[in-house]
Amino acid sequence: MRKWTYAFGGGRADGRADMRDLLGGKGANLAEMANLGLPVPPGFTVTTEACTHYYDHDRHLPDELKPQVEEALAEVGRIVGRTFGDAARPLLVSVRSGSRASMPGMMDTVLNLGLNDATVEALAQEADRRFAYDSYRRFIQMYGDVVLGLDHHLFESKLSAHKDQRGYLNDTDMQGDDWVEIVDAFKAIVADELGHGFPQDPQEQLWGAIGAVFASWMNQRAITYRRLNNIPADWGTAVNVQAMVFGNMGGNSATGVAFTRNPSTGEKALYGEFLVNAQGEDVVAGIRTPQDLTEEARLASGSDKPSLQAAMPAVFDEFADICTRLEAHYREMQDLEFTVENGKLWMLQARSGKRTAKAAIRIAVDMVREGMISADDAVLRIDPEALNQLLHPTIAPHATRDTIGRGLPASPGAASGEIVFTADQAEEQKAKGYPVILVRVETSPEDIHGMHAAEGILTTRGGMTSHAAVVARGMGKPCVSGAGSLRVDYDAGTLTADGRTFKAGETITIDGSTGEVLAGAVEMQQPELSDEFAQLMTWADERRRLDVRANAETSPDARTARSFGAEGIGLCRTEHMFFDGDRIQAVREMILAEDETHRRRALAKLLPMQRADFVALFEIMRGLPVTIRLLDPPLHEFLPKASEIAEVAEAMGADAARLRERAQALQEVNPMLGHRGCRLAVSYPEIAEVQVRAILEAALEVGAKGGEAVEPEIMVPLVSSRTELEAVSEVIERTARAIEAERGSVPAYTVGTMIELPRAAVAAADIAARAEFFSFGTNDLTQTAFGISRDDAGAFMGHYVASGILPADPFVTIDQDGVGMLVRMAAEQGRRARADLKLGICGEHGGDPASIMFCERIGLDYVSCSPYRVPIARLAAAHASLLTRSSPELSPATPDGLPTLA
Amino acid sequence: MRKWTYAFGGGRADGRADMRDLLGGKGANLAEMANLGLPVPPGFTVTTEACTHYYDHDRHLPDELKPQVEEALAEVGRIVGRTFGDAARPLLVSVRSGSRASMPGMMDTVLNLGLNDATVEALAQEADRRFAYDSYRRFIQMYGDVVLGLDHHLFESKLSAHKDQRGYLNDTDMQGDDWVEIVDAFKAIVADELGHGFPQDPQEQLWGAIGAVFASWMNQRAITYRRLNNIPADWGTAVNVQAMVFGNMGGNSATGVAFTRNPSTGEKALYGEFLVNAQGEDVVAGIRTPQDLTEEARLASGSDKPSLQAAMPAVFDEFADICTRLEAHYREMQDLEFTVENGKLWMLQARSGKRTAKAAIRIAVDMVREGMISADDAVLRIDPEALNQLLHPTIAPHATRDTIGRGLPASPGAASGEIVFTADQAEEQKAKGYPVILVRVETSPEDIHGMHAAEGILTTRGGMTSHAAVVARGMGKPCVSGAGSLRVDYDAGTLTADGRTFKAGETITIDGSTGEVLAGAVEMQQPELSDEFAQLMTWADERRRLDVRANAETSPDARTARSFGAEGIGLCRTEHMFFDGDRIQAVREMILAEDETHRRRALAKLLPMQRADFVALFEIMRGLPVTIRLLDPPLHEFLPKASEIAEVAEAMGADAARLRERAQALQEVNPMLGHRGCRLAVSYPEIAEVQVRAILEAALEVGAKGGEAVEPEIMVPLVSSRTELEAVSEVIERTARAIEAERGSVPAYTVGTMIELPRAAVAAADIAARAEFFSFGTNDLTQTAFGISRDDAGAFMGHYVASGILPADPFVTIDQDGVGMLVRMAAEQGRRARADLKLGICGEHGGDPASIMFCERIGLDYVSCSPYRVPIARLAAAHASLLTRSSPELSPATPDGLPTLA
């Protein structure tokens, strides 16, 4: 006979913590506490198998279940000295669902089950009438709602009407008789609505509740939640039936919550609060001020209400002892719920406690020092993404938020400043000492100087990988992008939000971690990196296989990257150097050049500037590799907008008509798929030539000063075939030979390519014949593999993710089954063609923990990300190494070991 | 000892026609003719191995070569009764290069080698002085140019000066003494330029010429030609040394060219011309009017000069007999060169003759009827692409072409008409009865009505798969696209070409087969489809495995397609039905709708129109499958341009500001990668719902009339994942169920998807779980795999193809190694997941013969192309079947037999 019920309580249990699949999370947890001998109200769990049986057999429960439940219930009664349905000492129980994974959207709890017109009187005898009838009416309301399917408003409005009639303000004003009346009224509601009375038979109540839990597994909310979270429908849910305990039975009863360590700071000190003569929901409701648990905490808070330590010393000692035991048992900070019923402590819940990133790091490092966990454990316990909280200023937790709109959390951290609408205004106001927020419909490369000047960036269009988002993340500045409910009117100089209008100069705050836009300045909290943080990162570095580099081109960014532990530059976008100061003019002259001769003349002006940029970068990155990408964007990105042509033409002494004509000729229908990347180097080899010269001459210059040399890696973008790479490689080699002839030597360098087009991924073996490294440009690879422009994805991406068509925004987390498959194919084929091919990733995914795990699995050599994400990537890489090591089936793929597509 | 020379002549030869790799094309051919016992001037071939030896050994010839050449030369002398270098009866030879593949750009011929100051006198004795010295000066000039590297202008200007001095007009005015003087002058030029005299030693002359042939294999022109044509450098070239024969030795000598059948009509009749006392170049030069070969031809042409048949009856009979033998031997129409020297016929060349498409078909069909070749051979002999000549009007071969510019040959055929610059003008002028050419910078879907009205379309921007090109091919109208040297000024209403300006109303002609744009009207030649054409297509259909469908949406197109033999519609682009008449207004109302309710209201107006469209289409295509693609382009394509908003808003009674706002909101940075395809159906399921309803109701209506039913195939575009297809499939199924509920039945239909994104190709196994067919949209797949927008490719694609970075424009011929690999992967994986998955291709490649060969090899079920390309695709599919059958290594891939990527 199959075992359908697992008992717990009375110092033992049938189940264990590792039986989560069968008992659900809650059931397994209660069993574990009971096994530890902790005072858990006794009860039993109906297994998830009963649920699957229920659905496999047309919603019929197994025949064997009934006797097993009756037996389990009798045992619970024996432990507490009560009997289910007994009119003298009735056993009351709670019924709760509990699946393997936490699943909001399923049936709520039913408390006080077993109460009826008879047993309520017994309860009144034991405690008091007011308590008994209040409990009864709560039961009718909950049961009516979740089991009988009656709208809870029906009950609530009746209660409100009663209070209004009596002139009561709060439920605490209700007397015993009031509750008796309410119970009658509630029973009348049930009879009216259903045509039969509220079930008086406790057995009927119980089976009704068990059936409701199982039925709720297939309600629409649960189905949707499972679909969104990839939870299989055949997991089923368990049902937990447990004896009721009451914290509201008088002055010797209490209820409380606690954390075994401070969840905010991580300090090792019992932390929590409780209320005398109260139920759990009263603590949460916040109507009465809760009391501290420890004397130390009471003194610190200056409270005049006694601590649990002082008020119930025996209970406190027992509780503190349980805390220590649970922490030692689970080797993790615990979030606990307890109830004291007539001086007896009952543990209702123990689970891992949520905490801030700062607390998480302190707790993990402390636990290693206390010998509770290993350094591996400590590293694995910190969510890499959570480090974001530590690396940027954030809005103070208790600050008031006057939210005026919401966009995408495009770059973390928060900032306040005056609204400016143009990059030039940003610079001007910043120069005068005013912090500013640059507010634009969208940004373009011409806005870079304004983004540098601003504290944060807000756009009303564009996604997580729009220009604003990418550049802001690179700069480590907060950014909210695509705040579609806000309207920017450049002409009027206003930002309109939900009927409120803000002018240039007014102050707003953006929270790039949540996507919120707030009116006015808001209190901030500055980041501080603790010793524990440093310790954790050291442990992480000792454990990771993947190198972590940064995407950077400016000296400040490179310095930030190195200080955050970057092991080189994985992507230096040379075009970002083309917008500053005089350069943009030389770049425009180059674009307007009539022929190669004039183009070379303009390029000659750029050479010393680019060389100086590289000298600076190479100095900062001494001893490390620096990957420099040749010019990538289409040339029209460097030309002024239509409205600015006349002005720009005058400034550069060019003919406006010619400038306009050239701009029109360069215009593209789909610039993402246009004349860019290595196609520029093929069309205008002299551009690549000057860039290569600047790189190699800079490396020579830095090398000549002695000390560690850099390793320049010249990267050819947007390659689709070997022949294309060959054409550009010839230009690079020719230039290197020319420098060698002129100077007598040329620094060591390598030539590689971005793999950012599906065709390149497919032809990787062929391309690897000419490439010394591949850097996966997964931004563009995602755009082309999906055929989705990240600038235009806003129109549908939100719905795609929300409805589960895509599990995540593929621009944020790599799409392993599609884009990832292309990356894996290319890595595998590339390595076969060239065993020492260096493999890295430099798309936005290089800083995304899930994507880094993928990079580890397919055996890449490094990831490269924004400077501010370097610590996150270091930690994520350590996770990836530890997890692949512990799960052999996930271990880094060798070329031969990879599953093939065939 | 290796054999380095292969002799021919005197009724035998060492080589054979199938020794082309060793002897080159010319050498193998001469050997074959000699083996047949034909009168070939004797000679020998120095093998291609000698050439590779030359390059493998630092440009030294093999030691064994010299004695072998001397021996071969002596044998030639024995045959003709002469001796090389002999002052009495000197042997003169020609030296020609000859590689495996025809290679213009290599060394030209050297004739009359062996002449020197002594032997020229012997020649003068044999023939006459004038002839001898003319021959000698020709030799010095040719040898000086191609062996000694002297500029031929040096010689030509000397000859011109001489003629001026004497007052001669033509070379025929030159007398013997004149040529003697010229010979002296030419020798002086050589001595001046080189510091030594013209080589008098025939051996030195010979080795100089042989060395020059081998050296020319590595000249820049040859290297470039090989790179562009994928000819390996290690093939090398052969050298042919052959005894000279002279057609200019007097009235009993002649030279001529002939085709064994009429190369223009295919008629079985000897066709050609000759000149008495002339050399080959005189026939080509056209100074003297050549004479006909046969009496019949002379009578037909009305010539008063005797035919060869009349003038030299014995020679003619021998020649006619040789023609018959050669045709029978090669089983192919021959292009022949011959010379008569003092009454003796010599055959100089026999090769397959070039011919028009019409002639090719007639000849092939006739030869089958004559029992010379099999029907398989006949099918394989016709280049499918050549059928284009037959299906469209073309410019008459002898018409004068006043070319004013050139673009891409985007849609074949030629047309003349008045210039119009807008679609509306096109309609107006057409309505008045004037043929027009629509001239645009580029076209958009709004121009469709103008394209319908126009005889042809000319654009100055856009590639082979730009909107104009694709639509024009679909309509079977000539189109020249991307004519970048032309400028269109809409405001001025002018087209400017190379300094000439054409106004609206002036007539131009476009040749969509060549890309030429011509001033004025030009004489045309109308297509006519012969009985032989019908016979050939029947044979082709009997031999092909692939089905051929058409891309069509209008009734005329569908009718054309069916008349051309289409076996269904492979792609009906429903959006093309959205631009006509009232529809565009309903479409715009739908786009402007505030919510689903308003959108449904607008869609309700479209339903009867779409249904009527499908009814018409289904009637035409009874008994055949019709694949209908749901709405694909981004909605902004249906909105008016900025300049037309006010007008359109008024016409539709909408608010202009609202229309402008909506248009701005829908604007996209990269529309190709935007909110389109199935993303529209996911965002607005009601659009798909109405389209599906129109399809199914139309099928019901047509089915109700009895007779053969259509097989509607509903195709979901731009799918990237199974989940996306699922979301749209649910809408389709829901709609079908609704129709079934309303009408009691629903017609049979299938649901499938386009595979046009790299991610879909990678995830094909998963997608096939929900798709009953895949149609490869290789246009978009090429765009996304390469990351190249076809609208913007013009800036670099020409250079990429010209420089060999790409072997061909991948939008014209499928890129087998990249895009093709994705298609193959998807086909293979799809079939594994669903064995009966129907596979087709509906991109432009569906009509390209090379791509069709690829489709055959990977085992697709059908190709779909423009209606006018259906016959081409049918023939190409037959080729593909025959070729894969005859070459097992190319046979259609089975899922298990495919090479895998791993």
- Helix count of chain A equals 35
Unreliable parts of chain A:
890-902
How far apart, in Å, are the first and last alpha carbons of chain A? 46 Å
Query: Which structural class best describes the helix and strand composition of chain A?
Result: alpha/beta
How many strands in all of chain A? 34
Which percent range describes the beta-strand content of chain A? 15-25%
- Give the strand line-up of the largest sheet of chain A: 15-25-24-17-18-19-20-16
Largest interface: which pair?
Answer: A-B, 56 and 56 residues
Largest sheet of chain A: 8 strands, mixed
What average pLDDT do the residues of chain A reach? 91
Helix fraction of chain A? 40-55%
- How would you describe the shape of chain A? elongated
Describe the oligomeric state of these chains in a short phrase. homodimer
Provide the gyration radius of chain A in Å.
33 Å
What is the strand and helix layout of this fold?
The structure is a homodimer of 902-residue chains.
Chain A lengths: L4 E5 L2 E2 L6 H16 L7 E4 L1 H9 L8 H16 L2 E2 L5 E2 L1 E7 L10 E4 L5 H8 L2 H18 L5 H15 L9 H19 L7 H15 L3 H9 L8 E7 L10 E6 L11 E6 L3 H6 L5 E2 L2 H7 L6 H4 L1 H18 L3 E8 L2 E9 L4 H13 L5 H7 L6 H4 L2 E2 L7 E4 L1 E4 L2 E7 L2 H9 L4 E5 L7 H6 L2 E4 L7 H9 L3 E3 L4 E4 L4 E4 L2 E4 L3 E5 L4 E4 L4 E2 L5 H13 L3 E5 L3 H9 L5 E5 L9 H10 L3 H25 L4 E5 L15 H7 L4 H11 L11 H6 L1 H20 L6 E6 L5 H22 L6 E6 L2 H5 L1 H5 L4 E4 L1 H9 L7 H9 L16 H15 L4 E4 L7 H9 L4 E4 L4 H17 L16
Parallel strand pairs in A: 4-5, 17-18, 18-19, 19-20, 27-28, 27-34, 28-29, 29-30, 30-31, 31-32, 32-33, 33-34
Antiparallel strand pairs in A: 1-2, 1-3, 3-8, 6-7, 6-8, 9-10, 9-12, 10-11, 12-13, 14-26, 15-25, 16-20, 17-24, 21-22, 22-23, 24-25
